[in-house]
Design a protein that fits this description.
By secondary structure, the chain is α+β, with helices and mostly antiparallel strands. It has three helices and two strands. It has one domain. Strands 1-2 form a two-stranded antiparallel ribbon. It is globular, with a radius of gyration of 12 Å. InterPro entries: AlpA, DNA-bd_dom_put_sf.
């Protein structure tokens, strides 16, 4: 998932997204190459489940 898609989905700014990542409040992205960064959808889903008090297993 592209960073812009994450920002749109969660209705957050770019600075908020990267602040959350830096503080460990959101899954870290994967850097595929220079200028290409993606977030793993499964990691985001697990993060959402954990925030709702559930488990991923």
């Amino acid at each position: 998932m592209r960073p812009a898609q994450v920002m749109h989905h969660f209705q957050i700014s770019e600075s908020t997204l990267w602040s959350w990542v830096k503080k460990g409040k959101f899954p870290k992205p994967v850097k595929l190459s220079d200028g290409v960064t993606r977030f793993d959808i499964a990691s985001i889903q697990a993060w959402l489940t954990d925030r709702k008090g559930g488990t991923t297993h």
